[in-house]
Amino acid sequence: xxxxxxxxxxxxxxLVAPVLPECPPECGMVSITEVEVSDDCLYATVFLSALKExxxxxxxxxxxxxxxxxxxxxxxxKQLPILRFRIDPRTERGSRIEKLLS
Length: 102
Description:
Blueprint: H1 3-16, E1 30-37, E2 43-50, H2 54-63, H3 65-71, E3 82-87, H4 89-101
Parallel strand pairs: 2-3
Antiparallel strand pairs: 1-2
């Protein structure tokens, strides 16, 4: 990832993080595990981890995407990345391995 992408990823994380506590309680603890910005800076993918219902957490953030996208307009760039939200697959893999080991 380039220096520019890294900086943009930090900005995206800072804009999305304050919304985490608003996530529905049935999702359990929700956190941002990583933010990836595409090389062309067209997309910023926010990877989330949720203890209980990750699909509801993703739905919550998708519902608020437009609001978060508008908040990004404070960033002085010609083109802002489109926000995408995904469940971090590493979290699910870790849970599966933990179950297998038990």
